[in-house]
DNA sequence: ATCCAGGTATGCA
DNA sequence: TGCATACCTGGA
């Protein structure tokens, strides 16, 4: 069929400012959207970004003052201003939160906060965050994005034009492992199947997590097949706005070794250090350090 | 070509 | 508990 015509027929709203105002630099916008917390944003020029979450398809860009603007297909635009504001956590001032981090006594952190000014933790839907990070093990960001696209294309819900949401967990449950594997998920397919089984048979499992104390929320997540400590912490940070979360992956391990001298520390020890050193918003610090390490060389 | 990637589950001291 | 190993897949 004619994807191009379908796409061209999409009428997009005029650009509107996200309210309350959300400020980025182009660097921090790119790092926020395409730096490993979300996997469905793309940009041809690093100026205008197009992304999907839940049943939302949105374009964003910055105005002259670095304020975030959005546009969406007219067909999806009702109530979109609120959903965009929620997704970007517009009611939160990352400068204020960053100010609670120990940058006054930590030169590494101070430099990171300067370099990545405006970097945010997004508030993504919990169910999708679990799905995407369940696919993330042993993968680079580019690969995770490929898996997410395949899942959406093969099993997702149609939005407008050729665009599709990620599949619902119930769709995963009803799809059979072969069709999940066909989405390049590899050995993660049985994890998706097992987790979908659990979530479908126990509705409210994820909703209960949201209000649970951190340790029990973490336990509930790691009880799911394919979800270890790292994935669970990412899900809580990016999908439940638990800012005390401090996921330790290979990048953070490298960063903490290089920048804080934690050579040969185990992930659990690094996480304990991170929480103790950075405090209740350790997750934001983690994202800054992740950005620094990941962009250390021009490669990657 | 061989290796490794935002890890997890499993099996063995 | 603590450490080694296998595991899909794709890009360098």
Question: How would you characterize this protein structure?
Answer:
The chain is of the alpha+beta class. The protein is 52% helix and 7% strand. The chain is built from 16 helices and five strands. It has a five-stranded antiparallel sheet with strand order 1-5-4-3-2. Helix 8 crosses helix 10, helix 9 crosses helix 10 (189-201) and helix 12 (214-222) packs across helix 13 (229-240). It starts with a helix and ends in a 6-residue tail after the last helix. Mean pLDDT is 95; it is low at 1-5. The structure holds a DNA duplex (13 and 12 nucleotides).
The quaternary organization reads as single chain
Q: The CATH topology of the largest domain, please?
A: Endonuclease III, domain 1
Question: How far from one another are the termini?
Answer: 35 Å
The CATH architecture designation of the largest domain is: Orthogonal Bundle
Structural class: alpha+beta
Proportion of β residues? 5-15%
In helices, the fraction of residues equals 40-55%
Number of helices: 16
How many beta-strand segments?
5
Uncertain stretches of 5 or more adjacent residues: 1-5
Strand line-up across the major sheet: 1-5-4-3-2
Which of globular, elongated, flat, extended, rod-shaped describes the shape? globular
Estimate the mean pLDDT confidence: 95
User: Rg, please?
Assistant: 19 Å
Order of helices and strands: HEHEEEEHHHHHHHHHHHHHH
């Amino acid at each position: 069929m004619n994807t191009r015509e379908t796409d061209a027929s999409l009428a997009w709203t005029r650009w509107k400012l996200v309210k309350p105002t959300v400020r980025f630099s182009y660097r921090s916008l790119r790092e926020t959207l395409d730096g490993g917390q979300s996997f469905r944003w793309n940009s041809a020029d690093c100026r205008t970004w197009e992304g999907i979450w839940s049943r939302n398809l949105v374009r964003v860009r910055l105005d002259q003052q670095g304020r975030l603007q959005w546009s969406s297909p007219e067909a999806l635009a009702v109530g979109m201003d609120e959903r965009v504001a929620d997704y970007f956590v517009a009611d939160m001032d990352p400068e204020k939160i960053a100010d609670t981090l120990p940058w006054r006594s930590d030169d590494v952190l101070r430099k990171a906060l300067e370099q990545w000014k405006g970097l945010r933790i997004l508030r993504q839907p919990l169910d999708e965050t679990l799905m995407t990070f369940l696919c993330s093990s042993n993968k680079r960001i580019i690969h995770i994005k490929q898996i997410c696209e395949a899942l959406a294309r093969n099993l997702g819900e149609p939005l407008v034009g050729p665009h599709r949401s990620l599949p619902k967990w119930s769709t995963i449950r009803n799809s059979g492992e072969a069709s999940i594997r066909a989405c390049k998920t590899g050995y993660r397919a049985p994890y998706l199947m097992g987790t979908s089984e659990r979530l479908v048979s126990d509705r409210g499992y994820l909703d209960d997590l949201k209000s649970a104390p951190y340790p029990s929320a973490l336990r509930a997540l790691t009880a799911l097949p394919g979800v270890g400590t790292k994935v669970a912490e990412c899900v809580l940070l990016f999908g439940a706005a638990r800012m005390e979360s401090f996921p330790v992956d290979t990048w953070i391990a490298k960063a903490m070794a290089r920048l804080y001298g934690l050579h040969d520390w185990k992930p659990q020890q690094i996480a304990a250090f991170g929480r103790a050193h950075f405090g209740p918003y350790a997750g934001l610090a983690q994202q800054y350090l992740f950005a620094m390490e990941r962009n250390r060389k021009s490669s990657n």
